[in-house]
User: What shape does this take?
Amino acid sequence: MRLAIAASLCVLLLSLPASHAEPDKRDFSPAERLLFMTPQLKGLQAPMLLRYTFGKTGSFEESFADSVTVSLSAKEDGRCCDAKGVFLSGARKLQVPDVPAADGNPVILYFLEHDVREMKRLTRGSEYHFRKRIRMGIYQAAEVRDVSLRYQGRAIKGKEIVFSPFLDDPNRPKYEKFATKSYRFTLSDAVPGGVYGIRTSIPGESAAAQPLVVEELLIEGAKAPAR
Assistant: This one.
């Protein structure tokens, strides 16, 4: 099971946009570089535990609150980091692979793997198709903008990446209720691990209606893990 999950994460990270260009023969978008090619863990002192809150709300299903952690330990050379994640708990828990010698924060890929599985569960569609649409959205249509944020009582600066990968999907009629789903990634060098938050939202059927589903991961903080 763990090998299968690791393989699916690699598919999400490495799948190419519609041009099918080789990775070393095409330009990566600014959003791709920020999400997948930035050494977000660089400079952290291991051991460290990155802690995130996770919440689900909306009219479509029962709401819940949970947590996500990424445990960082020193590599053999003493530098940061080998990463081990825990994504949600109990029946909702997603088994995620350890990431040795991690540069980027794996919580991004863990969230996306969870998201793809949720899209499959809600629509009975193909995980491969949803992965491809998300990666195409990041490559082709994501907007990147500067934002001001608050973290532990102080103002910080960050980048926000926003896209809606299913709006122009030819398969949209198969899951029309969920096709307006939007994704928002908020990154900042001022928070440990570089990921301030990730949010997905599926609006209701009218402007006045409550959203169908909102899922949001937010940085809570970082600390040395309990011994």
